[in-house]
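Quick one, C-alpha cells below. Sequence please?
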C-alpha cells in the first residue's frame, strides 16, 4: 500500500492503510492504528535522487561471480556457501548462550588478521566483557574495533567516521532507532534496523552480520520478520548438554541452502570440526543391541550418526514412547510397521529412540536405521558394528531409494565401515566404493532376515 494515500499506520509494525482498522491485518494487534504517519516514516519513504533507473539486458550483464572473502574458518565458510560476499547482510540466529557472540568474535579476529577493519557493535555487552571473551579466545591483542552501543543513529555516525570493511551487530533486537516510537525488539524496530543495515551493506559493499535471538517458538523476532530481508540466514543449533554446535544456512542467496558447518565448543572458543562423523560416533559402543548407524545427509555433507533404541515391556498400562533428535510421528509409523509387516508384538512395549550426540535427523533416508535399531533392541541382538544402513521406508514395508547415495557410501568407507545395506533401487546409480560391500534390499522382511537370521 503506498504511503502517500495511507493516513493510518500501525504503531506496532508500521503497516499503512488508507482508513482506520480495528485490528492490524499485518501483526494482528488490536486498536494499534493511529492517524498520521509515525515519526520517521516520511524519511523512510523518501526516494534518493539520482540517475533514472534503466533496465538492462540479462545477456549483457558481465558474468562475474560474487567475489568471496574467506573467514579463515573452513566450517563457517562452508556454511556461508564458500565465504562471505561483499555487501551481503547475514542474519545469525540462535538461542541465548549457544555461541553467536563467540563465533563472530573469532570471525572478526580472522578478518582483521587479513588487514580488514572490523567494527563489532554490541548492544548487549560492555567493551570489558567482550575483551574478557577475547582474552579467553586468545585474541586479546586483536585489532577489532569495539562499539558498545544500541542506538542506530549513533552506530551510523561511527560507521561514517570509521568506514569499516566489515560490520557485526550484536544483536538486532537490542538495536533501536530513535525515529520510531516503538520499543527495541518490537517488529517495527527490528525491521527498520535490518532495513537500515541492508542499505548500508549494499551501498558500501560492506558485509554485515546481524545477530538475532531466537524466541521460544524458534523464530527470529516475530514470525519470519527478517528472513526475507537478509541475503543469508544462518541458524546456530546445539544443545546445552552437548559440545557440538551446527551452523546451518536455512537461506542463502549466494550458496546452497541447508549447508552446515560443524563446531565443537571448547574452553578456547568454537573449533571447526573437520570430521563430524568421528565426533558423532566417538562414544559408540561396538556391537550393542539397539544400535544402528546411518549416513545422513546434511546439506551436501554426508555424516555418520548412530541411532539408539531401547525397547522394554511396559510396566504401567499405556506404553511410553520418547524420541530425541528424531521425529516422533515418523518413529510411530515405523513402530506400527514393525507390528504389521513383521508381525512383531511391539505396540505394547515402551520404546525410547534417540540420535546419539544430540544431533537432529529429519531425513527420511534414516528410516531404515531407526527401524533396524528398534528391531535390534526388541530381539536383543546386535547389528554388525561395521554395517551402515540407508533407506526410506514406505508404508507397505518397501525400501525406497535415497538421494545422493554415492557420497554417503564414500563417507562410510572412509570411516572404516565394511558394508552398507541400501535400497535395491539405489544400486544401479552408485559406482562401487573401495573396501565397502553393498547389500541391496527391497523390503523390511529382507532387512530382518539379513541382519538377524
Ligand atoms: P555466547 O557466544 O556468549 O552465546 P550467545 O552470544 O549465543 O548468547 O556463548 C556463551 C557460552 O559459550 C557460555 O555458556 C560460555 C561458553 N564458552 C565456552 O565454552 N568457551 C569459550 O571459549 C567461550 C568464549 C564461551
Ligand atoms: Mg551474545
Amino acid at each position: 500500500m503506498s504511503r502517500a494515500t495511507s493516513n493510518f499506520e500501525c504503531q506496532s509494525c508500521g503497516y499503512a492503510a488508507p482508513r482506520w482498522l480495528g485490528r492490524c491485518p499485518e501483526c494482528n494487534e488490536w486498536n494499534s492504528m493511529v492517524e498520521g504517519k509515525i515519526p520517521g516514516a516520511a524519511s523512510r519513504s523518501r526516494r534518493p535522487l539520482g540517475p533514472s533507473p534503466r533496465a538492462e539486458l540479462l545477456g549483457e550483464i558481465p558474468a562475474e561471480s560474487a567475489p568471496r572473502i574467506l573467514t579463515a574458518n573452513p566450517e563457517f565458510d562452508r556454511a556461508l556457501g564458500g565465504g562471505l560476499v561483499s555487501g551481503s547482510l547475514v542474519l545469525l540466529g540462535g538461542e541465548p548462550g549457544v555461541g553467536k557472540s563467540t563465533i563472530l568474535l573469532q570471525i572478526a579476529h580472522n578478518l582483521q588478521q587479513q588487514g580488514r577493519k572490523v567494527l563489532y557493535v554490541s548492544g548487549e555487552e560492555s567493551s570489558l566483557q567482550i575483551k574478557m571473551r577475547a582474552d579467553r579466545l586468545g585474541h586479546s591483542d586483536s585489532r577489532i574495533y569495539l562499539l558498545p552501543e544500541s542506538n542506530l543513529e549513533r552506530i551510523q555516525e561511527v560507521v561514517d567516521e570509521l568506514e569499516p570493511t566489515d560490520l557485526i551487530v550484536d544483536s538486532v533486537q537490542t538495536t533501536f532507532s530513535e525515529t520510531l516510537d516503538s520499543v527495541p525488539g518490537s517488529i517495527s524496530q527490528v525491521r527498520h534496523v535490518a532495513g537500515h543495515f541492508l542499505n548500508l551493506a549494499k551501498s558500501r559493499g560492506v558485509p554485515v552480520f546481524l545477530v538475532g535471538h531466537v524466541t521460544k517458538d524458534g523464530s527470529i523476532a516475530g514470525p519470519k520478520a527478517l528472513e526475507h530481508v537478509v541475503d543469508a540466514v544462518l541458524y546456530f543449533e546445539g544443545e546445552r548438554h552437548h559440545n557440538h554446535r551446527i551452523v546451518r544456512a536455512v537461506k542463502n542467496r549466494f550458496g546452497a541452502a541447508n549447508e552446515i558447518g560443524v563446531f565443537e565448543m571448547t574452553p578456547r572458543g568454537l573449533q571447526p570440526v573437520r570430521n563430524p562423523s568421528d565426533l558423532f560416533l566417538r562414544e559408540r559402543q561396538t556391537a550393542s543391541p539397539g544400535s544402528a548407524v546411518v549416513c545422513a545427509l546434511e546439506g551436501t555433507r554426508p555424516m555418520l550418526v548412530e541411532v539408539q533404541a531401547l525397547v522394554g515391556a511396559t510396566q504401567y498400562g499405556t506404553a511410553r514412547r520418547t524420541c530425541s533428535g528424531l521425529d516422533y510421528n515418523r518413529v510411530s509409523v515405523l513402530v506400527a510397521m514393525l507390528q504389521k509387516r513383521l508381525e512383531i508384538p511391539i505396540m505394547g512395549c515402551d520404546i525410547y529412540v534417540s540420535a546419539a550426540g544430540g544431533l537432529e535427523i529429519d531425513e527420511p533416508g534414516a528410516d531404515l536405521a531407526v527401524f533396524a535399531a528398534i528391531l535390534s533392541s526388541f530381539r536383543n541382538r546386535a547389528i554388525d558394528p561395521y554395517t551402515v544402513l540407508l533407506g526410506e521406508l514406505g508404508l507397505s514395508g518397501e525400501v525406497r531409494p535415497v538421494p545422493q547415495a554415492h557420497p554417503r557410501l564414500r563417507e562410510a568407507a572412509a570411516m572404516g565401515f565394511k558394508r552398507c545395506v541400501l535400497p535395491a533401487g539405489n544400486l544401479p546409480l552408485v559406482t562401487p566404493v573401495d573396501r565397502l560391500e553393498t547389500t541391496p534390499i527391497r523390503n523390511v522382511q529382507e532387512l530382518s532376515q539379513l541382519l538377524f537370521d
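Residues 91 and 231 are 8 Å apart (CA to CA). The first strand starts at residue 8 and ends at 10.
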